Amino acid sequence: MKTDVFRERMEVLSKQQSFAEDFVLPDYQRLSVKNILPQIGAIFGAGSFGSSGFPREYFGDFQNVDKVVLFIFDGLGYNRLLHHLGNHTGTFTELAERGALNPLTTVFPATTSTVLTSIFTGLMPAQHQSLDITCFPKSMVWFLTLWI
């Protein structure tokens, strides 16, 4: 699969949202993972999730859409996905060719729990305030209780 077009889209987004070297700022208004839920809601006519902000040309026409399948691959970056698509054939290559594949920015902090909460609520981390999940082993609970 040719991935040149997808790489160009990533370059444009990176230049628009770049901050320092190799750091891309979240684009909460337009191209953020937090806009996935409002977009799915819009597809099915549920406007109560707010406006997604995605450009209209980003996903094309949603006429006659009955189902939406959302694949979440934790830690798989856009460039790594393009490398795989360019060097392999199979289901995901076929889905990318038939569907819509575009880069999005994540939220900050980009922890799994924060990102998933933003995807499933349509809110920025400052709004949902679920910034991380911290787990302690039982042996640490006694120490933490005394220390606090």
What layout of secondary structure does this protein have?
Elements: H1 4-17, H2 36-43, H3 78-87, H4 91-98, H5 112-121, H6 125-128, H7 138-147
Characterization of this structure:
The model has no long low-confidence stretch (mean pLDDT 82). The protein has one domain (4-107). The longest helix has 14 residues, at 4-17. It starts with a helix and ends with a helix. By secondary structure, it is an all-alpha fold. It has seven helices and no strands. Helix content is 43%, strand content 0%.
| Domain tally | 1
The helix content is 40-55%
Question: What is the radius of gyration computed over CA atoms, rounded to a whole number of angstroms?
Answer: 18 Å
Alpha-beta classification = mainly alpha
Give the low-pLDDT segments: none
Sheet with the most strands? none
Give me the number of helical elements: 7
Number of strands: 0
Proportion of residues in extended strands: under 5%
What is the overall pLDDT average?
82
Task: Tell me the span between the first and last alpha carbons.
Answer: 56 Å
The geometry reads as: globular
Order of helices and strands: HHHHHHH
Short description:
This protein is mainly α. It is built from seven helices and no strands.
Keywords:
single chain, globular
